[in-house]
Amino acid sequence: MSPAGVRALAGQRVFVTGGHGFLGQPTCRRLAEAGAEVVAPTHAELELLALEPTCAAVAAASPSVLLHLAAHVGGIGANQRHPGAFWRDNLLMGVHVLEAARRAGVRRVVVVGTVCSYPKFTPVPFLESSLWDGFPEETNAPYGVAKRALLTGLEAYRLEFGLAGAFLLPANMYGPRDDFDLETSHVIPAMVRKCEEARVAGRDEVVLWGTGAATREFLYVEDCAEALVLAAASLDDPAPVNLGTGREISMRDLAARIAAATGFAGRFRWDATRPDGQPRRALDTQRAQARLGWRARTALEEGLSATVAWYRAHGPGARA
Questions:
Q1: 179 vs 55, 157, 203, 311, CA distance in Å?
Q2: Cα separation, 5 vs 197, whole angstroms
Q3: Cα atoms found within 13 Å of the Cα of residue 304, Cβ hemisphere only
Q4: pLDDT number for residue 79
Q5: Running DSSP on this structure, what letter comes out for residue 216?
Q6: How far is it, in rounded angstroms, from Cα 60 to Cα 26?
Q7: How far apart are CA 311 and CA 175, in angstroms?
Q8: What pTM was estimated for this model as a whole?
Q9: Which segments within 43-191 are labelled E, that is strand?
Q10: Can you give the pLDDT at residue 73?
Q11: Spatial distance between the Cα atoms of 153 and 98, rounded to a whole number of angstroms
C-alpha cells in the first residue's frame, strides 16, 4: 500500500464495526499501520441490532471515519436455512450504523456491500452500473437485497444530511482466519477442509455441491483490506466500487487447485441435487483502479497456499 495513499489517516480516529472478524482484523492492522487510532468494539461490547447503543458507542468514540464491516454471512446452505435472519440482521445493522454516523457527525463512512447484490444473470464482467438491472440469485437474495438497500441509504443520507462516504463491492473473499465450519462456510474454506480431511483420513473421494460449472472470482482478504483503508483515507463518492481480481474460475477448476494445494489425490463427486448458486461471477475493476489506485496483488495459488497453511496450523474450529 502506498504510504501517500493513506497519509490522510494519520492521527485520525477510525471506528470499525466487525473489527475482530475475518476482514476486520487485517483492516484494523492496516489502519493502525497508517497511523490511525482504531476503535473496534467486539460483538460482546456492542450489539449493532440495537439502535441507541450503536449511536451511543459511535458518539462516545467521536470518530472522523467509520468503516462498516460487520455482517451476518454464510455460504449457500446458511443463506437457504436463515433467509429472514440474513435479511433482517444485515439491513438493521447497516441502518443503525448510518444513523449513528449521522448523529455523531462522522466525516466519512465506508460501507462494505456484497457481490451477491448483483442480478442473477448479470453480464460478465459485472459493471457497477448493472447493479439494479434485475433480482439477485435466489439462494442469496435476502442478503444481497439487504446490502443493496444500504447503498440507497448511504446515497440518501448524503443528499439529506451531507454524510459522505463510499460503498465497496468485494468479490468472494477467502484467506487465513476464514470460517471453516461446513454448516456456515463459503466455498473455498469448505473445499479446503473437505480435501484436507480426506487426505488425512486416506479417503479417495470428496463430495462437493452443485455441478461444478458455476464460476466465481475470489479476492484474498488482505487485498480487500488494503482497498478499504485506501477508501477510508480518500473516497467520497456515491457510486459503488467493485473490488476483485478480474479472474473467473469454475468450481471444477477451483477444486483441482485446492486438491493440489492440500495434496488430495482422490476424485470429486459433484452432487447436482445441491444448488450452484449464481451461474457466473466476475467483476470489472476499472473503477477501483481509477478512484483508489488499487489493484489486487495476490494470485489465487498464493492465497490458497496461505489459507491451507493457516488451516493446518489452527484446525477447523479456529476462526476470526
A1: 29, 33, 23, 10
A2: 42
A3: 22
A4: 83
A5: E
A6: 24
A7: 10
A8: 0.95
A9: 65-68, 108-112, 164-170, 172-174
A10: 85
A11: 8
Written as nine digits, the cell of 112 is 462494505
What does pLDDT average to in each consecutive run of 10 residues of the chain (320 residues)?
75 97 98 98 97 98 98 86 95 98 98 97 97 95 96 97 97 96 92 97 96 97 98 94 97 98 98 93 97 97 98 83
Task: Give the Cα separation of 77 and 187 in Å (integer).
Answer: 11
Matching residue, cell 493446518: 312
- Whose cell is 454448516? That residue is 183
Report strand pairing: 215-216 vs 164-170.
Answer: unpaired
CA 8 to chain centre: 24
**Of 34, 30, 39, 33, which Cα lies nearest the Cα of 10?**
34
Phi, psi of 72 (to 5 degrees): -100, 105
Write down how long the chain is: 320
Is-catalytic flag, 143?
Answer: yes
Cα–Cα distance for residue pair 301/107, rounded to 1 Å: 39
Residue appearing with cell numbers 478499504: 228
Q: Tell me the β-bridge partners of 109.
A: 66, 165
Alpha-carbon distance of 34 to 19, in angstroms, equals: 16
Indicate which residue of 143, 157, 174, 311 is catalytic. Answer: 143
What pLDDT, on the 0 to 100 scale, is given for residue 271? 96
**Which amino acid does the sequence have at 143?**
Y
